[in-house]
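TICKET: design request
STATUS: open
ATTACHED STRUCTURE:
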């Protein structure tokens, strides 16, 4: 194969997958062109996903804590929200990060083209320059498709109304509506619903399945559900939205479900958060051997190479889970494969975090999956009511659990619900990736008093020897 440092590589899409791939390719000496319609790299994650949502969730948490402080003898009075300033702060965070990525592109001599790419064939792209105008055909040795995903829409609930928002519209924070209906009890709906509720909106969440966050273990969801019941006006499970109608006073919604008291209700705004669709409808893709599966994901092998040998695909467009950190790792894997390194994208654990309050995080095997596959596991749970640190934070409702192979004692999965669970899960991911035994986690000295101790104490629970809880001998 050609010396990888002489390769010309195009990356279509400047999200976390795309820029991680472009930067590594440049670091390995390849000649890289990164194409994205925005002014700077960043993609959905930075412009209208992970980053703006977490900035707003930080504010929501502050508002919630200020309210909770009453229990500790501290009163701040009613918060005054300056929406323009809040929006400006959030935008500033986005601008700093995307501007930084623009700088990093320049420093690495990555040619960033603000435009949209279409495929002419397996090695040529037609790039339409969105800002500068004009079109150009560019030829490359390898092409990495990182075009990401977009919000899904329920076709029967299409409505041409500014009151109907997707996640992008909701993150713009056009106003604090009096009432908001969130369609979809997945992580995006719950995160954004929490932001609006903290700002003072009466939020109703509708989920067609029997529980929030379908797919997550129920014992992890329970503490969040309980807290959201207080924060939200209503959580309607097993419920579907039959129709939406734009009226002068709001959107009239018809609901159907066992706990629906009023079948028709009017909401100031509706947020549709029913999942995301991969952006695989790239013009000209059909002129290549690239294949797309029934769900719209581009099919790839463990090196993230498509059926067309010169084309790779990574990130949301290349399959579940649609998460930024998965996209970044795939991007690096594809570039290493292009460089001729012996690599495969075969993680033992991809962490998932729901940044609500409390947060939920899990990695590796879940109890739900173990049950589905009839896999025998031991589950060691440490309730945060026994954690000194959790009590100092007045957040005893959390839970940390390890899923352990009863024969080998290997840690197969970790699940956490509680304040800051998203930061804690990384230790679990490392344990799974390093094939740690429960004893390895239990015998590792964790700092006291921290929530991280709950991982160590879960391992101690497995052996019936947790310092802070009594468990009868097995
Ligand atoms: P994307 O980030 O989707 O970027 C793709 C880019 O390609 C876009 O800029 C797009 O405009 C561009 N593009 C598309 N077609 C073309 C073309 N033909 N030519 C040129 N460019 C093109 N994930 C997490 O891990 N953690 C979170 O906390 C989190 N929170 C989220 C919150 C919200 C509200 C949303 C919507 C998503 C969130 N996600 C989160 C998901 C995360 O944003 C995605 O998984 C991640 O952005 C996927 O990265 P990507 O590189 O595959 O593509």
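STATUS: resolved
RESOLUTION: sequence designed for all positions
ATTACHED SEQUENCE:
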């Amino acid at each position: 194969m050609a010396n990888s440092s002489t390769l010309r590589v195009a990356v279509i899409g400047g999200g976390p997958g795309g820029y991680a791939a472009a930067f590594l390719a440049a670091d390995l000496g390849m000649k890289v062109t990164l194409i994205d319609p925005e002014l700077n790299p960043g993609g959905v994650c930075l412009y209208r996903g992970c980053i703006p949502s977490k900035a707003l969730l930080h504010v929501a948490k502050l508002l919630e804590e200020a309210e909770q402080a009453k229990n500790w003898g501290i009163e701040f009075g009613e918060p005054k929200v300056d929406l323009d300033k809040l929006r400006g702060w959030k935008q500033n965070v986005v601008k700093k990060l995307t501007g930084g990525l623009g700088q990093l592109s320049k420093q690495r001599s990555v040619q960033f083209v603000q435009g949209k790419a279409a495929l002419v064939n397996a090695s040529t792209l037609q790039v339409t320059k969105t800002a500068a105008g004009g079109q150009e055909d560019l030829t490359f040795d390898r092409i990495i498709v990182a075009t990401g995903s977009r919000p899904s829409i329920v076709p029967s609930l299409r409505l041409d109304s500014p009151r109907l928002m997707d996640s992008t519209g909701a993150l713009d924070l056009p106003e604090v509506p009096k009432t908001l209906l969130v369609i979809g009890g997945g992580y995006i709906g719950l995160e954004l619903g929490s932001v609006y509720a903290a700002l003072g909106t009466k939020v109703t969440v509708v989920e067609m399945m029997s529980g929030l966050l379908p797919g997550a273990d129920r014992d992890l969801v329970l503490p969040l559900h309980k807290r959201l019941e207080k924060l939200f006006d209503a959580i309607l499970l097993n419920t579907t939205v039959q129709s939406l109608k734009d009226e002068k006073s709001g959107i009239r919604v018809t609901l159907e479900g066992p706990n629906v008291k009023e079948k028709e209700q009017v909401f100031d705004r509706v947020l549709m958060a029913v999942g995301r669709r991969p952006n695989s409808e790239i013009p000209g893709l059909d002129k290549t051997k690239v294949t797309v599966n029934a769900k719209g994901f581009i099919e790839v092998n463990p090196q993230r190479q498509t059926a067309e040998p010169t084309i790779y695909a990574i990130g949301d467009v290349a399959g579940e889970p649609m998460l930024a950190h998965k996209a970044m790792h795939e991007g690096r894997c594809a570039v290493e494969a292009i460089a001729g390194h012996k690599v495969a994208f075969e993680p033992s654990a991809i962490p998932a975090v729901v940044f609500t309050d409390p947060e939920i995080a899990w990695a590796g095997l879940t109890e739900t999956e173990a049950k589905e596959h009839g896999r025998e596991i031991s589950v060691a749970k440490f309730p945060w009511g026994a954690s000194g640190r959790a009590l100092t934070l007045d957040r005893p409702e959390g839970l940390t659990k390890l899923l352990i192979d009863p024969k080998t004692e290997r840690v197969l999965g970790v699940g956490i619900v509680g304040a800051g669970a998203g930061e804690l899960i990384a230790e679990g991911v490392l344990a799974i990736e390093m094939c740690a035994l429960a004893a390895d986690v239990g015998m590792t000295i964790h700092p006291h008093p921290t929530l991280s101790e709950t991982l160590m104490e879960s391992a101690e629970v497995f052996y019936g020897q947790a310092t802070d809880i009594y468990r009868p001998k097995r």
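CLOSING REMARK: The first strand starts at residue 8 and ends at 12. The chain has a mean pLDDT of 96.
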